[in-house]
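Appendix B. One record, verbatim.
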Amino acid sequence: MKSDINTNTIDQKNDAKKVFRKKGTCSRTFFFLLNREFGTYKDNEEAAIDPLAGGILKKGHQCGMLWGAALGVGAEAYKRNDDPSEGMSLAIKASQNIVESFKSETQTINCYDITACDFSSKLSFAKYMITGKFLDCFKLAEDWAPKAMDAARTGLQDEEDNNNDFRYTNCASLLARKMNATEEQTVMVAGLAGGLGLSGGGCGALATAVWLNSIAWLEENPGKLCYENDYAKETMNSFEEMMGKKILCKDICGCSFNSQNEHSEYIQNEGCKELIETLAQTKPIQSKNIE
């Protein structure tokens, strides 16, 4: 068991709205907040999550707050476990807890359901800004942030009985390995699996590839904003060339996953193999020297 650092900063002072204004995207905001909560600092990796705001490259799927929170709690799951398989399992459980907390707050997990904005449309985005609808996102960030931290802490303490002989795997972590990610990053992305915490939404492997490729883009373009970077766009293009309009995990897999064991066995039996291989062939991350 690795060290456990918990600073409870949101409980002391809820500055989620201020952080949101500074960071610029909901995904980056919650990645930062979760990292700070547990004493972790990952500026480059936090910046690379910008393309997941707006529901995966503006597609309206899972809210960026969820993607950010899941990666943040995944980083803490890695710190708490020497065994990567156990770290992945913990990351998924904690992410499931976060997803349930968010659903209780909003009755949905999808960006479009919350914002009623098609961020790929300039007209829709202009309406979102002019009407002040964007203020609702700031309010949601402020209202949910303490609950997100509670959900993360509770999920990370979850000691469900596991079969110690069972080696957990998942689509996101398998892809990360194939993309030459660090062991930490491989554990971090586990919570994205199965459409984010096995919820069946937008593809977690796609989100993983977008994030890792955005890290690569930032390494080559330091200091630049990567919200709409070329590597992320190329990743989405490769995905759509193969999957067409299918993007939901439950549609791609043709099933839902009721447990980590089900998802792990599906992946071990070569479920989504072609998709994972396709995404792995997109621009690989260039270096393991990430903050």
